[in-house]
Specification:
Number of domains of chain B: 2
CATH architecture of the largest domain in chain B: Orthogonal Bundle
Structural class of chain B: mainly alpha
Number of helices of chain A: 13
CATH class of the largest domain in chain B: Mainly Alpha
Strand content of chain A: under 5%
Distance between the termini of chain B: 43 Å
Number of strands of chain B: 0
Strand content of chain B: under 5%
Distance between the termini of chain A: 40 Å
Radius of gyration of chain A: 26 Å
Number of strands of chain A: 2
Structural class of chain A: mainly alpha
CATH superfamily of the largest domain in chain B: MetI-like
Order of helices and strands of chain A: HEEHHHHHHHHHHHH
Largest sheet of chain A: 2 strands, antiparallel
Largest sheet of chain B: none
Shape of chain B: globular
Helix content of chain B: over 70%
Oligomer: heterodimer
CATH class of chain A: Mainly Alpha
CATH topology of the largest domain in chain B: MetI-like fold
CATH superfamily of chain A: MetI-like
CATH architecture of chain A: Orthogonal Bundle
Shape of chain A: flat
Helix content of chain A: over 70%
Number of domains of chain A: 1
């Protein structure tokens, strides 16, 4: 009896340290994330903005902010975000899959994979805002890309008149969206390649040997062995890329100087949020945040499930 | 005989396949490098040269461009560089220390709410910080912390992603026997963590430190909402200034020079640590 209380006391005293060690994380999370999130929710139900010099509100308006936001530009910015994300993601996942297969192919035995991995991953660590301004400079009306185009098309007018341009990328919807999508692609395909490589290398090699003995061709092995086993990781990549895409801000913001030009066709959801935050329209800003939170929460929950399931299946065998 | 030819055929096929691979990889590498190469070249050319022609060879205005940038009072480059360095270093350190502490708390102890705490962190891992930005900025203003570095550093204490990576790494590289052994030598649990556990975890945390540093270095959204005065600016804010009002009036040599200043230090560090970083990308989450 005495013994059991003493061991009990011992385990209790260790448990105390568990709480002490995780406390700073949770305190910081409550102060810097959870409380602000709740206050953002709260703000979304009030009319609270500045109209010129007069302050309007805060007055409780229920769901009016949500109605206003959904009826005006939220859905459009969400569409823009999805389109730009999708335009970058498709080439990203295809090229990453192809490169990952090549890098891990034992028959090909490519040399210098370390070098190529280093180079294709590099854009990922570089400041997105710098890349965006760099691309703006490169593709601007009189920038190097236009100069190259002028040389190719032998356009004399371009060199004689300062106001001319071959193609005004930033006045065309496809131009801005395409450049933003290309930057996203450039920044992320190296990362995806490396993640998929890890996934492919995690596949049991005996499965490949078995399929080879059964006389499967390269494409058949890919279709019936690699792809199905890679599915969880592809799903993980897809969802995390989607969550990342939802947060797209720096690149279109700096490509268009915050305007989402031309005609708001490249304005993303976070750019809209940023606009409301800067003009101190807390009601609408709150509503945009809350809708965004729910979209992200659904996607996060899928990531959570995929991580949990992977762990389970790992523990299973 | 026929077997031999088929073997030769397949080895010829393999060579062709290999050549195609190399060509594609070289093209991809060139596309990845080209924008940055062009940036470096243009940073050495004068405004007039950049506007009038295109070349792949460096010019002679490197020093002039740098001096023009350095002497521009609206572009406090060195100051911003220092600010970025300070904020990123502090938040990287806070993040790895407290992530490791939290991960260790959940890994090494059993307590009632352990599972709940772990599930909670996994659930919030992917929630973007932007969704609570409104409340965050207002709260910081109420605390009187707007236009200070604190709001950019302190939230690093709660970094679910780093926590998750370090926790995964602990499971594979920190046997609980070490924890037991440390206890025998005496000292309280906190002391043991700092003196015994934290040093063991260093390699995996270095990777997390790099990622946190880069994330903070590149962050534009939050600093733009928090920082106001000229001497508090971080590099991304300075870069964003290039796209403000009158882009057309800027000296393009100076623009490329500023971009180079923001990009090259990171490329340099990356090249030194690339093996390390690339190994770190897959650490933990996607181990299969």
């Amino acid at each position: 009896m005495a013994k059991s209380t003493s061991t009990k006391r011992k385990s209790v005293s260790y448990a105390k340290w568990g709480y002490i060690f995780i406390a700073p994380f949770f305190i910081a999370y409550f102060i810097f994330s959870l409380f602000p999130l709740i206050s953002t929710f709260y703000n979304s139900f009030f009319e609270n903005y500045r109209d010129g010099l007069t302050q309007v509100g805060p007055n409780f308006v229920g769901l009016d902010n949500y109605k206003a936001v959904l009826n005006s530009d939220f859905l459009k910015t969400l569409m823009n975000t999805l389109i730009i994300w999708f335009m970058g993601f498709i080439p990203q996942i295809l090229l990453a899959l192809l490169f990952a297969l090549w890098f891990t192919d034992l028959r090909l035995r490519l040399k210098g994979t370390g070098f190529f991995k280093t180079v294709i991953y590099m854009p990922n660590i570089i400041m997105a805002s710098s890349i965006a301004v760099l691309f703006f400079a490169l593709f601007s009306d009189r920038g190097p890309i236009n100069t190259i185009l002028a040389h190719i098309t032998n356009n004399k007018e371009y060199f004689e008149m300062q106001s001319t341009s071959i193609f005004r990328f930033f006045s065309s919807t496809g131009g801005v969206r395409g450049i933003a999508a290309f930057i996203n692609f450039l920044m992320w395909y190296g990362n995806t390649t490396i993640i998929l490589m890890a996934g492919i290398m995690g596949i049991d090699t005996s499965l490949y040997e078995a399929s080879q003995i059964d006389g499967a061709k390269g494409t058949q092995t890919f279709r019936y062995v690699t792809l199905p086993l890679l599915k969880p990781i592809l799903l993980y990549v897809l969802i995390t890329a989607m969550i990342g895409g939802l947060q797209m801000f720096d690149i279109p913001q700096l490509l268009t100087a915050g305007s989402g030009a031309p005609n708001n066709t490249s304005k993303t959801v976070i750019m809209l949020l940023n606009e409301h935050l800067f003009s101190k329209n807390y009601g609408k800003g709150g509503a945009v945040s809350v809708i965004l939170f729910f979209i992200a929460a659904i996607l996060s929950f899928l990531v959570f499930l995929s991580l949990r399931d992977r762990k389970k299946s790992k523990g299973g065998d | 005989m026929s077997k031999k030819t088929s073997k030769r055929n397949s080895s010829a096929g393999l060579t062709v396949h290999r050549i195609i691979c190399y060509i594609c990889l070289i093209i991809a590498a060139l596309i990845s490098l080209f924008p940055f190469y062009l940036m470096m070249i243009n940073a050495t050319r004068s405004h007039a040269e950049i506007q009038s022609s295109f070349t792949l060879l460096p010019g002679s205005s490197l020093v002039t461009n740098f001096r023009n940038l350095y002497e521009d009072p609206n572009m406090p480059v060195l100051r911003s560089l220092g600010n970025s360095l300070f904020v990123s270093t502090c938040s990287a350190f806070l993040t790895i220390y407290f992530s490791a502490l939290t991960a260790y708390g959940i890994y090494a102890y059993s307590f009632k709410f352990k599972k709940l705490a772990y599930t909670f962190i996994l659930l919030i891992m992917m929630v973007p910080t932007q969704v609570s930005a409104l409340g965050f900025v207002n709260l910081m203003r109420d605390f009187g912390l707007n236009d200070t570095f604190w709001p950019l550093i302190l939230p690093g204490i709660a970094a679910p992603m780093s926590f998750f990576f370090i926790k995964q790494n602990m499971e594979s590289s920190l046997p609980l026997e070490i924890v037991e052994a440390a206890r025998i030598d005496g000292g309280n649990e906190f002391y043991n963590f700092n003196k015994v556990i934290f040093p063991i975890l260093k390699p995996s945390m270095a990777v997390q430190a790099i990622f946190t540093f880069v994330g903070s270095w590149n962050n534009y959204f939050m600093p733009a909402l928090i920082l106001e005065s000229n001497e508090k600016k971080t590099l991304p804010i300075l870069v964003a200034q290039l796209r403000s009002a009158d882009y057309a009036k800027f000296d393009m040599g100076k623009v490329y020079m500023l971009l180079a200043v923001t990009i090259l230090p990171l490329i340099f560090v990356y090249l030194l640590l690339s093996k390390f970083i690339i190994r770190g990308i897959t650490l933990g989450s996607v181990k299969g």
